[in-house]
Amino acid sequence: MAENGSRLVRGAIALVGLLVAVAVGWELFVVLPGTLADLLGVVLVLLTGVAGLRFAGRIADSIYPGYDVAEVAVEGPIRRDGGGTFPNPAGTPTDAIVDQIERADEDDGAEALLLKLNTPGGEVVPSDDVRLAAERFDGPTVAYATDVCASGGYWIASGCDELYAREGSLVGSIGVIGSRVNAAGLADKLGVSYERLAAGEYKDAGVSLKEMSEDEREYLQGLIDGYYETFVERVTEGRGLDAEDVRETEARVYLGPDAEEVGLVDGLATREEVEDLLADRLGRDTVTVEEFEPERGFRERLRGGTSAVAYAFGAGVASVFDDTGDANGFRFRAR
């Protein structure tokens, strides 16, 4: 009943706005300038009416929102700038995702947050930024995995109250991997030598043009272990799981039913069933979901469209550094 009442009020506000705009337009473009052609006056009146209707509609929506759940999507690789190169397609910039969650939190109409996840993972710190934003949302937060919720995606999900997936969803990949290209042998064959100019023993640890010493290997493995322990801690605290049970997953990805069995998701559900769950959390019969989307230019939309063809298996990938091979070409990924 309350929802129907708010709809009537919004409709009344919009109608009043239309009538006022038409009256003003008629006075300005038809009555006052008597020499203007009537047809031109009518056109201008209609244009003014449309503008007034849109303006009044925005006012009505701000006063009486037509939704009670905000949906924010995390799709594609998780990167600070959203950019990527083949085979790592573009995703949504994480700062924009955080902004949408915070905007939803400030919106009086958004009483709950639905976080749609379809990502193989991404950079660690941006993933944690999104997790924190979801965790700070003032209201129920439900994460919903579609195709893939792996690595950094699961890191994000650990900040939500609940996580649901489909039977065919791939979920998990709680782990970290470090990789480097060892081109020392190739460099020798080509007559290319590595000349070290660095300050600090480990400054060039992982450089691909030289063999890695045991000390360097131990140093880099320590970084990997540190990120892994942080990942386990996030999942343990956020999902209420035992740390040893998390480690025993050994960075596997699980199909939905198996993920439910080991406790990585709260259950299996379709999108409609997730909305029913949200309605139950809010004490409603039904909910209306509003998509909160970042503003993206044509180039970003075109580039983002390629994400469907990459990471088909979704093994999970949370690169700590960017694709330029920071940390001297040694790359870390949560996996």
Question: Describe it for me?
Answer:
By secondary structure, this protein is α/β, with parallel strands linked by helices. It folds into two domains: 2-63, no CATH class; 69-177 and 213-334, 2-enoyl-CoA Hydratase, Chain A, domain 1 (Alpha-Beta Complex), CATH 3.90.226. It has helices at residues 2-31, 38-63, 94-106, 124-136, 152-157, 184-190, 214-239, 243-247, 256-261, 271-282, 298-304, and strands spanning 69-75, 112-119, 141-150, 162-165, 170-172, 176-179, 253-255, 267-268, 289-291, 318-319, 331-334. The strands form two sheets. Strands 1, 2, 3, 4, 5, 7, 8 and 9 form an eight-stranded mixed sheet that branches. It has a three-stranded antiparallel sheet with strand order 6-11-10, covered by helices on one side.
| Fourth-tier CATH superfamily name of the largest domain | 2-enoyl-CoA Hydratase, Chain A, domain 1
The level 1 CATH classification of the largest domain is: Alpha Beta
Biggest sheet layout:
8 strands, mixed
Count every beta strand, where a strand is a DSSP E run of 2 or more residues. 11
Number of helices: 11
Strand content: 5-15%
Q: Summarize the amount of helix as a percent range.
A: 40-55%
| CATH topology value of the largest domain | 2-enoyl-CoA Hydratase, Chain A, domain 1
Query: What's the assembly state of these chains?
Result: single chain
**Over all CA atoms, what is the radius of gyration?**
26 Å
**What letter string, H or E per element, gives the SSE order?**
HHEHEHEHEEEHHHEHEHEHEE
